[in-house]
Design goal:
mainly beta; about 0% helix
């Protein structure tokens, strides 16, 4: 299980593995701090691909690369996509 301390004003965390996780939120203020813990609060399911088997998909924050098998006959608006084609 991962443990991480985040000190940020707008918490955002991306889970890397499926499972059920406990969440603890601690807020600090001038006179001290307060915490709230929720046991088994978040359930993360296994990622299910939206692409057919055999498609090699790499997604980043700046680009999406999808290698489509030629036998899939890929098309955009009935126009065939040629090998090595870039959209």
């Amino acid at each position: 299980m991962e443990h991480q301390l985040l000190i940020i004003s707008k918490p955002d965390y991306h889970f890397k593995t499926p499972g059920t996780f406990t969440v603890k939120l601690t807020v600090s203020y001038a006179n001290g701090q307060a915490s709230l813990t929720r046991e088994d609060y978040i359930t993360v399911n296994e990622l299910v691909s939206l692409f057919p088997p055999g498609w090699d998909v790499t997604l980043t924050s700046t680009q999406h690369v999808i290698a489509v098998p030629l036998d899939a006959n890929p098309r955009i608006l009935e126009t065939p996509i040629e090998p090595g084609g870039i959209l």
